[in-house]
Amino acid sequence: MPNPVIRWQIVSPEPNKASRFYEKLFAWKLSTANGLGYRELVNGTGRGVDGGVWPAPPDKPGLVQLVIEVEDVDETLLAAVKLGAQVIVPKSVLPDGDTMAVLLDPTGLSFILCQLRSRS
Amino acid sequence: MDLRQTLAAELARRRSRNRRYSLRALARDLDTDHASLSQFLRGRRHLSARKLQQLGRRLHLGAADIAEACEQHNADAIARLGRLKSFRPDSRWIATRTGLPLDLVNAALTRLLHQRRLAMPAADRWSFSSHA
User: Fold this and answer.
1) Which of the given ranges, A12-16, A26-30, A90-94, B42-46, has the highest pLDDT on average?
2) B11: closest CA among A51, A2, B24?
């Protein structure tokens, strides 16, 4: 299937509490060994989709975002905007090398486009 | 929420009631230092998060507004840091230099990206716009 969901992201006002909850409940492995100190949660089975927890801005509610892999962020951004999406964070290259952009779909849900480093 | 604008508006409001009401009087009423307040209002001084919270409470701002002011303050601090030649595009380095917890750094980076004040065109190159 093209453009798979490759990660999920919980944006939480209490990222420590959220990440520890899922770590304990599901025995997922929690790691912050990445360029942004992002709390990655890995299930370790090789199946399913791993994710992580990112801090929400103060006094903002939590939310869940899907991270969808694309071959070319620029192309997909254009296509998404034509279909009614709104760009809220333009194409950006993360310290680990992945390229991403954050959009709102036409119903107001945010999601993330990601072009993995190996394809950038 | 821009606390500087809020303070300036509060000073103007009090002056409209009492023409002799001064910045020194506002500083006294907010239990803060006149010189610091004056420099802050002129954009020549940056206050600590604790001081911002104190001022916000004394202005009877809501918790959400105070949090918003502090987040904006953190974003501004990172944007200023980003103009240094020695800047490193690394959340942990920024946290060390600003004294902010890593989560507050990352939340502020998100805010800067949303505001288009930060661009990340490459993994090792972040550029901050000049209107911080």
Assistant:
1) A26-30
2) B24
Distance from CA of A65 to the nearest CA of B (A): 14
Residue bearing tokens 């020549």: B44
A15 burial level (CB within 10 Å; 0-12, 13-18, 19+):
buried
Strands B118-122 and B125-128: antiparallel
- Residue B91 sits at φ, ψ, to 5 deg, of -55, -40
Contact (CB<8Å) A37/B102: yes
Residue B64 CB: number of other CB atoms within 10 A? 12
- For the segment B28-37, the average pLDDT, to the nearest whole number, is 91
ipTM of this predicted structure: 0.80
- Euclidean distance between CA atoms A20 and A27, whole angstroms: 10
Query: In 3-state terms, what secondary structure has residue B126?
Result: strand
Give the A-side interface with B, CB within 8 Å: 15, 35-38, 54-59, 88-90, 92-97, 102
Instruction: Give the predicted TM-score (pTM) of the model.
Output: 0.79
Nearest chain B residue (CA) to A11: B107
- Compute chain B's Rg from CA coordinates: 17
The CA distances from residue B119 to A74, A104, A119, B21, B53, in Å, are 15, 19, 20, 44, 29
- Cα A77 from Cα A73, distance rounded (Å): 6
**CB–CB of B107/A62 below 8 Å?**
no
- What is the biggest distance separating any 2 CA atoms in chain B, rounded to whole angstroms? 55
Q: Which of A89, A112, A113 to mutate to test the interface with B (most CBs of B within 10 A)?
A: A89
State the DSSP H helix or E strand holding residue B27, giving kind and residue range, or none if neither: helix B23-29
